[in-house]
Design brief:
The chain is mostly helical and 168 residues long. It is 81% helix and 0% strand. It is built from 7 helices and no strands. It has helices at 2-9, 13-18, 27-71, 73-81, 86-118, 123-126, 135-165. The longest helix has 45 residues, at 27-71. The termini are far apart.
Amino acid sequence: GKIQQVLKSSSDSALMTNIAENGNTTITETVTKNLQKLNSFSKSLLFWVIAAFLIGSLLIMNNAVHLAIYHRRLEINIMRLVGAAPMFIRLPYLLEALWITLAAVMLSSVGSLIVAKTALIPEAVMLSPSLTVSLFGVLSIEIAATLILTLVSSYIAIQSHFQKHMVL
């Protein structure tokens, strides 16, 4: 498709289209097939890298909440002894995790934009040209996904602590 059109319209297109490797395919077709294979490999590699980062971030957030709970375990026990509702005990940890997450997402977004501007990478190159999502849209999706991931990991960490150390 597009790759062959670009290769055929290049200044060296006469060299590529006149020579056939196996008698059946031209160099342009062979290059196109190899680039398509490389593209599909890159997409699958990117998927697994993103999956690894998501799992890693889930573990890091879970560990951070566990440390906060451990650090304040006496406060939690006192709150429970005076009759605080379980959600009242959980809420400060969930809110703290959300604030830290928002700050981290904003800091990483600003850092990415600074690096992109410094390296003279236009916004359109940072995103795929085929995407119609703006940079604000990507930031919104990133914030929403990160907040959901934070809430889930924080809730799991808090629930795990409650099940191990308290009866609710």
